[in-house]
Amino acid sequence: MKKMITFAAAFGLMASMATAAYADEDRPAAETEATAAPVTGTSTTIVEPTKLFDEPLIQQGSLAKENNEPIVISAITPFCESPNGKIMNFLSPQVVFSTGNHVSDVNGDGEWIEIYTWLGKAWVHVPAVV
């Protein structure tokens, strides 16, 4: 780390010395006149925002109340692409909402519920209540 800082300081010192030497040089009159010429005209840049999708994504009333049952997650929970599928990510404790799709677990120890996540729809395993 010290070598990198030393190198950066030496490189910066050399660059500043070169800039100072260039500024002190006597330049020909033709070069001075060329840089002193006034610039005329105008420039206009118009930037239009690009719409990636129509707003809003979720229209009012597009989610039926019976499909929006809240699920309270009280521990860090994985969510999957499909029931018993590949894990997409993990959810921290929070309230999530179901899409209304349920699938019974093959082992009989709960069910898989499809939920809405920031990555799209995903499945979370809800264990059976004992």
From TrEMBL:
Keywords (A to Z) from UniProt: Signal
Which residue positions does the secretion signal occupy?
1-23
Superkingdom per UniProt: Bacteria
Which named protein is this?
Answer: SH3 domain-containing protein
Q: Which organism is it from?
A: Paenibacillus albilobatus
